[in-house]
Amino acid sequence: MKKIDKPDEYWQEHLTDEQYHICRLRGTELPFSGTLLHHRESGNYLCTCCKTPLFSHQNKYDSGCGWPSFDAPLSADVIRYLPDDSHGMQRTEIRCAACDSHLGHVFEDGPAATTGERYCVNSVSLYFRGDSVS
């Protein structure tokens, strides 16, 4: 995985205020407010900051939690996992492995029929790229 190391000034110039707050400052969008929550097109979900492919539409499901949810990333090397003890909780933060953008958190309450994991991701942290039609 190629690492992308840009100064904070770069991200402030190239992201919207909301994208910067969520992706670089580890913010969270309000539940049920994200544009990709009910999104159902075929394609991949990429990192907003660096466009690294992170999740497939095939792994997206409706968890009812208020944020886009996936049961697995495209590959193990695209996600970085960090302990997160903020807000009085013990969680696992997920970040883009390429640019270190905050994506959300992963929980072990996902679909038992697949991975059992729920990657709970901010819509703002994702950029959708649909499958090309020939």
TrEMBL record:
SUPFAM superfamilies: Mss4-like (SSF51316). It comes from the Bacteria. InterPro entries: Met_Sox_Rdtase_MsrB, Met_Sox_Rdtase_MsrB_dom, Mss4-like_sf. Keywords: Metal-binding, Oxidoreductase, Zinc. GO terms for cellular component: cytoplasm. Its EC number is 1.8.4.12. GO terms for molecular function: peptide-methionine (R)-S-oxide reductase activity; zinc ion binding. Pfam families: SelR. One of its GO terms (biological process) is response to oxidative stress. Binds 1 zinc ion per subunit. The zinc ion is important for the structural integrity of the protein. Its cofactor is Zn(2+). The active site is at 120 (nucleophile). Belongs to the MsrB Met sulfoxide reductase family. This is Peptide methionine sulfoxide reductase MsrB. It comes from Vibrio aerogenes CECT 7868.
